[in-house]
Amino acid sequence: MPRYDRNAAVYDWPVPVGEPAREVWYGLAGPADGSAAFWYRYTLLSTEGGRQEARLWAALTDTEGNSVFRSRSFPLSDATLDDAPFAYDLPTGTLTSGRTQGDLDDVSWDLSYTPDDYAFTPLRSQRLTDFLYRVAGTGKHWSRNEAVRVSGEVTVGDRTLTFDDVPGHQGHTLGASPPPTWTWVQCNGFDDPSLSLECLNLDGTLSMCLRRDGVVHELNRLHHVVGPRANRNERLEPGHWRFTGTGDGVQLTAEVVADPDHWQQVAYMTPDDTLRYNAHCSVSEVTLRYRVDGEQKVQATSEAGRAEWVDTTKPVSGEYQPAWD
Fold it and tell me: What is the pTM of this model?
């Protein structure tokens, strides 16, 4: 299997002090009714200024008002990485390609899923992706488990949420020079359990995929991303995003609306020692309209979209965590 299609680390950790590098594994899961969503991240970071750390992150978004965010850093020496099969171990957390376990203060979790056979990448051409990575310093991203069904438990204090075959997603991203802004959404919480949507917007360029009944429609060739036939944003502002795309046998329009009462406001340190501010809503409303060639138009909605608006300045006002000194 090609390396890009796996969760295995790309950087040779630990990298030398002062060498810029960042590698992130993240995942999300929650009921299709959008009542709650759990977001976890396992990260490795080395900055030009000499900061080096491994970090575990966990956030529960609960529409009943019991949302929490937790994050803890560890020395890079505390992180253990295995390749075949993939595993990332920290003193209080473990991630594999089909399971995550962790414990952060009053938040603990044990979730598992059958790995997805399909991994979505923003550019279909891995040769072009590798070229841009080497020459332009752009990062790499692949949604290793683009749409999975997750089971297990998340506990916050004395409250335990049981997830039974709920929609989930897991991805892997890396790079020494993260983009200044991006917007992202993934949703597989529609009434049709075979249906999933993912879109990544980087500085006005959009890559997306639509999956249904085991068929993948990938709108991520170069002409989908740039040029006169490219996917396009029709509206883009924090909390509201509408986009459209045509190609690979499908036409689609999607609208994403985040409830301002359910933001997770998170700050990421990047390899050049600057911050990216992420306004994230794991219980966003997604309205999808699509037509597969030769079929009737379909509309589908979900309250379980995972969406984020990221920028070098705060997309929405408020406190962002963790606080970086």
Answer: 0.95
